[in-house]
Design a protein that fits this description.
With about 290 residues, this protein is mainly α. It is about 70% helix and about 5% strand. Helix 1 runs parallel beside helix 5, helix 2 crosses helix 8 and helix 9 crosses helix 10.
């Protein structure tokens, strides 16, 4: 069976690849949306945090025998702790001034992180094995599904929609949203706003690390893996609407699928299709597909 002259199995395989990429876009753009929406910081260091998450998993395996499942817990905690230190020592000085300073600071921090890891490990990629439980593939009849890629999609959906539920449907989430809109009032009710802000940035950093661990068995781990992806992720956030949690999730998944389809029908445009869509969306709806018009 063929679709537009392309064998069905090849077509579905490319769609799966697009969905896997979209899963990474969704988690990373979600972390960016959480930090921007709740703190107002354009966190250009997000790609470096993603890269650091993958390196923590790899170093844990190489030097401490830490398996993949433990890395999924430890890596976000380590990177979240780094984010916590960055927020307390540097970012908290910038909340009341022009957001461009936050962007410049986080961009500088990402360059520092890349430089340190490049000096220590070089630019050649490191391999991270697929965990034994997820090796192999499953025959679905109409296509062969690699088990690990299926896990990446499932795990991404759980993380993304779990985060959305936490922020949009729980009391803690309501405190977070209220704290960004009127911190003085929320603090008057006994809520420790600085602690809440600090933990929010650490949580966003941890989300980037989760994406890094999920990506480690799929791609080579290099110091540049974050900078190669962060521009696309920023485009995803802009298309979905800056600060929109649900918009980031849905747009990330959607654009991953569109990118996958573009590789099937017009491979030459696959690297620019996201930016073309961003330009069109900004012309029609500057606030993004799910953003609020001011």
């Amino acid at each position: 069976m063929e679709i537009f002259g392309i064998p069905l199995q090849a077509f579905l395989g490319q769609l799966l690849l697009g969905l896997v990429n979209g899963s990474f876009y969704a988690i990373l753009s979600l972390g960016l949306a959480v930090i921007f929406g709740l703190l107002g910081i354009v966190n250009f260091a997000h790609g470096a945090l993603y890269m650091m998450g993958a390196y923590v998993a790899w170093l844990g395996l190489e030097h401490f025998g830490m398996n993949y499942w433990l890395a999924l817990v430890v890596s976000p905690l380590v990177v979240g702790a780094i984010g916590l230190v960055v927020e307390r020592t540097l970012l908290k000085q910038l909340y009341k001034i022009d957001p461009i300073y936050g962007l410049l600071l986080t961009f500088g921090l990402s360059l520092i992180a890349e430089g340190i890891l490049r000096d220590q490990f070089g630019v050649s990629g490191q391999q991270y094995p697929v965990p034994e439980l997820l090796q192999g593939a499953t025959n679905l009849g109409f296509m062969i599904l690699p088990n690990y890629r299926g896990w990446v999609v499932l795990a991404s959906l759980i993380v993304c929609f779990g985060t959305w539920f936490l922020i949009e449907r729980t009391r803690l989430g309501s405190y977070l949203r209220a704290g960004t809109e009127n911190p003085a009032l929320v603090q008057a009710f006994g809520v420790n706003v600085p602690l809440m802000v600090m933990l929010t940035y650490a949580f966003g950093a941890g989300l980037a690390a989760v994406a890094g661990v999920l990506a480690a068995p799929v791609i080579q781990i290099t110091p540049l893996m974050g900078s190669n992806l962060i521009i696309v992720v920023f485009a995803v956030v802009v298309i979905g609407g800056m600060g929109s949690i649900l918009g980031s999730i849905l747009t990330g998944l959607m654009l991953g699928l569109i990118e996958g389809l573009t590789k099937v029908f017009y491979p030459e445009a696959s690297n620019i299709v996201v930016f073309v869509i961003m330009a069109i969306v900004l012309i029609i709806r500057p606030a993004g597909l799910f953003g609020k018009e001011r």
